[in-house]
Amino acid sequence: MKYNITVIPGDGIGPEVTEQAKKVIRAVGDVFDHTFLFKEALMGACAIDKTGNPLPDETIELCKKSDAILFGAIGDPKYDNDPTAKVRPEQGLLRLRKELGLFCNVRPVKAYDTLIHNSPLKKERIKGTDIAIYRELTGGIYFGIKELSDDGTHAFDGCSYTVKEIERMAHLAFQSAQKRQKKLTLVDKANVLETSRLWRKTVTDLASEYSDVELDFLFVDNAAMQLILNPKQFDVILTENLFGDILSDEASVIGGSIGLLASASVGKENALFEPIHGSFPQAKGKDIANPLASILSTAMLLKHLGLLKEAQVVEAAVEKSLELGITTQDINSENPFSTSKVGGFIADYIHNQEDSNINFQNVHMGQSTII
C-alpha cells in the first residue's frame, strides 16, 4: 500500500522528534511492504519567519490531499513573551483545525509499569491507569468572539456550543467506550455555565443509544482533583475545548513524563497526529528531547489508516525501549540516550522484532542495536 503523509515539523524540538517518527514509519514500511511518501510543510513561528503567515495556503492544500498529517510542535519564546504581537504561531494551528474540520482530539493516558517510579504520584494510585480523553477541538472559548476595549481596560472571550457540535463528539466518545471498559465520564461546569448545561443535556439524551456504556458526570474542578487522587476510576473522559486542554496536560504527570503523551485530532475527512509536549525551545538542537510521544503518535496514525498490526508493533517497540531504559534524560537521567538514538533503536527493533539480544554499546554509538 502507498500512503501520502504531510509532515509539519514546526518549531522548537518539533523537527527533531518528527524526524524520529519518520524513521519509525519507514521501518514499518520496510517490514510490512508499505510505501510512505512524506511531504514537508510550514506552520508556526518558522512559517511566520519565512512567509509572514503562521499557516500558508500551500500547507492547507497539502494537508487536504494527504492520507494523514504528522505534526511536531508549535511556539516560540519571542511570541510568547510579546503580548502585543498581532501574529502568533498558535494562530496557525487553530486555523488548521478549522480548515480541516479537526473537531475531535483524542489523548491516551497510560501508566507504564516501568516508569511508575518517575511519576510524583504514589505507585498504588496510578498503577493500571489507562484513560482516553476526548476533547472537543474547534468550538468553545478558543474560537469564540474576542474583544478588547479601545482603552485596553476590558477584555471579553465568548464561549459557544451547538447541539450538533456536542453530538458528533459524544458519538465518538461513546463508541470508544464500547471498545474499552464501557464507562464514559462527561466533565463540565453545569452548575455555573449555560454551555455546560447544554453539554450535559445533549450527552444524557444520546446515552440511550449506548445502553451498554455507563455514563457519569463530574464538575471540572472535581475532575482535576480525581485525576490525581484516583485516575484508575476513569475509562473515557469527554469534555469541551478549554477543560480538555487543561485536564489532558494535568494527566501527563500520571505517566511520569509529558514526553510520552501522543494525540490525534480527527475530522470527517482529515486527521492530524502530534505529541502534546509543545516546542520546548530550551532543548532545541541539543538532541535531548524525548521522541516517544511523536513515535506513539505515529502508532495512532497507523491505526487511523487501518494498519492495526503495524501500530501494535510500534507500541511494542516503545515498550521495549522503556523496559530496557533506552530513553532520553527526562526519563533516564543517570544513563540517558539521545533523541536520535532512541528513534534509531525503535526503528531497528521493528526491523528485528524477534531478536532481543541488544548491543547497548552500539546504541550509544548510533550503530545497529540488534546482534
Shape descriptor reads globular
User: What pattern of helices and strands is seen along the backbone?
Assistant: EHEHHEHHEHEEEHEHEHEHHEEHHHH
Computed over alpha carbons, the radius of gyration is 21 Å
Helix segment tally: 15
Biggest sheet record: 10 strands, mixed
Q: Kindly report the average pLDDT value.
A: 93
How would you classify the helix and strand content by structural class?
Answer: alpha/beta
Helicity, as a percent range: 40-55%
- Biggest sheet: strand arrangement: 2-1-3-12-11-4-5-10-8-9
Beta-strand fraction estimate: 15-25%
Poorly predicted regions are: none
What does the model show?
With 371 residues, the protein is α/β, with parallel strands linked by helices. It is 43% helix and 18% strand. The chain has 15 helices and twelve strands. It has helices spanning 14-32, 45-51, 57-65, 77-80, 89-100, 123-126, 163-179, 194-206, 220-229, 241-250, 252-255, 292-304, 308-324, 339-351, 360-365, and strands at 2-10, 35-40, 68-73, 104-110, 130-136, 146-148, 155-157, 183-188, 214-219, 236-239, 262-266, 271-275. The strands form two sheets. A ten-stranded mixed beta sheet has the order 2-1-3-12-11-4-5-10-8-9, sandwiched between helices.
